Amino acid sequence: AGVILLLISLLIMILSLALIVKTLIFIMRGPARKYLRKSLNFDELLPEKFSSSPRLKAVNAPGWLSILAGFIITTLVQSSSITTSVLTPFVAADLLKLENMFPYTLGANLGTTGTTLIAAFTVKRALALQIALVHVLFNFFGILIWFPFKFMRDIPVGLAAFLGKTVHVSRLSPLAYLVTAFLLYPGFFFAIAAGYASPSGGAKAAVTICLLLFLTIHGYAVFVYFRKGGKERLLDFIETRNAKTKRKRKHRVVVSGSSI
User: Fold this and answer.
1) DSSP 3-state of 171
2) Res 205: pLDDT
3) Backbone dihedral region of 70: left (phi > 0), alpha (psi from -120 to 50 degrees) or beta?
C-alpha cells in the first residue's frame, strides 16, 4: 500500500508540474512575462555595470543574491522541495535561466537546514545538535566548493543541460537517471559497506571483486568518453534525435493545421 501511494503521489506531482508549466506559458505573455523574468533573474534586474565591470562580474553579485533569495524563501516555508518545485516550472517556461536556477537551489538547500536546527534545539540533546550542524556545514561548504568559481558552477549546470537533452533520446531517461542515482548506486555502495562489515572472509572477497569490476567498467567508460571520441558520438546522437523530434512536432502541427 505504501509503494502504491508513493507512485500515486509522484504521478500527481508530475502532472501538477506539467500543468503549472503549461499554465505559465499560456498566462505569461507580453509585459507580464518580461517583468516576471526580470524579477527572477537578478542578472537582468541589477544595473548593467554589474555585468560589464570585470570586477563586479567576478564577484557574481546576482548569483549570491539568488542564493540569499532561495535561503529566505525556504526558511519561510521550511521546505526546500517547495522552493525548487515552484521554481522548476519557471525554468521550463523560459522565465528563469538554468544557470540562475542553480544558486536558488543552493540557497534552498541551506535554508532547509533551519528546520533541522529547530528540531535539534527542541530535542535538547547533544547528538541531535551535532547532526543538525553536520547538515548545516555540509550545505555551507558545498556552496563554497561549487559556487564561487565559474568552472565549478559550470559542472552541475552542464550536467543538468545534458540530462535535459537526453529526453529527446527517450522520455524515460529522467526516470532512468533517478533510479540509477538514487537507488542503484546507493544500493550498490550500501552492499559493499555491508560486505566489508561482515565477519565472513568470503563476503569481503566477493565485494572486493565487485568493487574492482565497478571501478574497471566506469574507468573504461570515462576513457572512451574523453579519449576515444565517445563524447562527440554521444552528443551527435542526441542532437540527431533532437532534430528528429523537432521534425515530428513540426509535422504534427502542419497536419493538425491542415485538418482544421
Assistant:
1) coil
2) 93
3) alpha
Amino acid at 115: T
**Which three three-digit cell numbers place residue 117?**
536546527
φ and ψ of 79, to 5 deg: -160, 115
Residue 127 in contact with residue 149, Cβ under 8 Å?
no
Residues 6+ apart with CB under 8 A from 192: 207, 210, 211
SS3 101: helix
What letter represents residue 133's amino acid?
Answer: L
Cα within 13 Å of Cα(198), Cβ side: 15
Residue located via cell numbers 518545485: 85
pTM for the structure as a whole: 0.76
Rg, the chain, Cα only: 23
What's the pLDDT tens digit per position in 204-235? 999 999 999 999 999 999 999 888 888 888 88
Query: Measuring CA to CA, which residue among 39, 31, 24, 20 is closest to residue 85?
Result: 20
Q: Report the alpha-carbon angle 146-152-156, nearest 5.
A: 80
Asked if 60 and 93 count as a contact pair (C-beta separation under 8 A), the reply is no
The H-or-E segment that residue 254 falls in is helix 230-259
Distance, CA of 165 to CA of 207 (rounded, Å) = 35
C-alpha cell read off for 53: 565591470
Query: Identity (one letter) of the amino acid at 223?
Result: F
| E runs forming strands in 70-143 | none
**Largest pairwise CA distance in the chain:** 73
